[in-house]
Structure to design on (113 residues):
C-alpha cells in the first residue's frame, strides 16, 4: 500500500506545502513508522536466521531509508505530477524513528539488543 500510494500519479494531489507538519508529511511519518515497526516485529520474532534477528534494527533502518530514497527518485523522474522532495525523505526518516520508539515502547528497550 505504501509503494502504491507513493507511486500514484500526483496530478490531483494538493499543492506542496513545505512543512514537516503538513498532512502529507504526517502521512509519511505514519506509514514509514508502521513499516518500521512491523518489519522489526517480523524480524525479531522469526527463528530461522539468527543473524537477521540480531541485526534486525540495522537491516530495517537501512531498508526503510533506502526504500524511501528510491521511491523519491522514481517520483522525481518517472511519475507524472510527482516530484523529488528532500522533505519527504526527512519525514520518512522521522517516521522510521517513531516506528523504533513504538517498538521499544511495546517490547522494551532490551528487545532491540
Amino acid at each position: 500500500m505504501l509503494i502504491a500510494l507513493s507511486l500514484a500519479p500526483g496530478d490531483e494531489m494538493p499543492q506542496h506545502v513545505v512543512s514537516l507538519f503538513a498532512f502529507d508529511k504526517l502521512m509519511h511519518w505514519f506509514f514509514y513508522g508502521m513499516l518500521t515497526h512491523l518489519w522489526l516485529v517480523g524480524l525479531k520474532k522469526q527463528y530461522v536466521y539468527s543473524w537477521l534477528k540480531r541485526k534486525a534494527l540495522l537491516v530495517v533502518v537501512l531498508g526503510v531509508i533506502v526504500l524511501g530514497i528510491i521511491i523519491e527518485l522514481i517520483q522525481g523522474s518517472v511519475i507524472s505530477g510527482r516530484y523529488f522532495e528532500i522533505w519527504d525523505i526527512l519525514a520518512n526518516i522521522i517516521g522510521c524513528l517513531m516506528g523504533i520508539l513504538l517498538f521499544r515502547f511495546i517490547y522494551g528497550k532490551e528487545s532491540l539488543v
User: Anything to note?
Assistant: The two ends are 30 Å apart (CA to CA). The chain has five helices and no strands. The mean pLDDT is 87.
